[in-house]
Every structure is written in structure tokens, then in C-alpha cells.
Write a structure and sequence with these properties.
Order of helices and strands: EEEEHEEEEEHEE
CATH superfamily: Regulatory factor, effector binding domain
Strand content: 25-35%
Helix content: 10-25%
CATH class: Alpha Beta
Number of helices: 2
Structural class: alpha+beta
CATH architecture: Alpha-Beta Barrel
Mean pLDDT: 94
Strand order of the largest sheet: 2-3-9-11-10-6-7-4-8
Distance between the termini: 32 Å
Radius of gyration: 16 Å
Largest sheet: 9 strands, antiparallel
CATH topology: Multidrug-efflux Transporter 1 Regulator Bmrr, Chain A
Length: 174
Amino acid sequence: MTAEQPYTTIKKYPEFEIRHYPSYVLIQVKTKGEFSRAANMAFSPLVNYISGRNQTREKFAMTAPVLHAPEKDFKTHVVSFVLPEGVSVEDLPLPADAQVTVQNIDAHYAAAHRFRGVANEDHFKSYGERLETEVKAAGLVTNGDVYYARYDPPWKPGILRRNEAIVALKNYSQ
């Protein structure tokens, strides 16, 4: 079974929940193009990295979810794998592929809305817009743009796939 990125649920609202994410490390690829195609283009370099295509040939376990952060125009996308808990940027081997970059994400709070279905641009946009509206209606302030999390492999039937729209929160306190 694939390990999942750890988080703690802090508070539940009718349409979303507040989570605390401890710090984590991402490997990322930036691509251009249509939403689904861009995600597919980024996937191979990321899989290659965790499969040992890096300077020390070190392998890493796959962790769910795969994160997908489109820019506002939905023409440029950053697709990321969350590395296993306990991995630090300082200990990572350099990527063999220049497309792959590494980013440390500090601990933070975020709002997340879980939904099911196939991951296409319209589906994700509608849930992202709904999340932003609900978060603002709750009096919370976002810190950055909505990004999306995909938890399941592409061969899982669409209606059973777990997806999330997520947005970091600014100055959240319990």
C-alpha cells in the first residue's frame, strides 16, 4: 500500500476541513500545456527520480498524493511528488534530469475539500473555485493559489478516485 502524506485534521466545516501539514519535501516538474496532458508529461521524470535516476541512484517509495499546481491561466503547471516522511532536502541526491527540482515546504495550515471523480481541468477548477469561496466565507485568508491532490492510480475507476482541492492559509491559529 502506498504511504500517504501525513497531516492532522484541525477543524471540519461543511464543505472543507482545516489541516496542519508538518514540513515536507517535494520533487517537482514544471510543464506547459493542457491540464491532463501537462500532468502526464511531468509524471515520467518524477517516477524516474524516485526509481533511482539521480546522482546516487537512490530509490524512494512512492507517496500519495501527486500534487498539481496550475498557474492562474491553466497553461503552466507544476506537478510534484511528496517524498516520504523524514526525507530532508540536505540528504537528497541531485536529479539526473534537469527538469526535476526539489523544494522544502515548511509546516503550515491549509484548507482542503475532498471529492471523487476523474481529474480533468473543468472538474478541478470548479472544486478549486468552490473551496476559495467557502474559505473566504468562513473568514479565513488564503496564502497562495489552490492546488490539487490526486491519491489514486489512473487505472482506478473514476468515480472511486480520491482527489482534493487544497489552499494554504495565512495566519491561521487554532
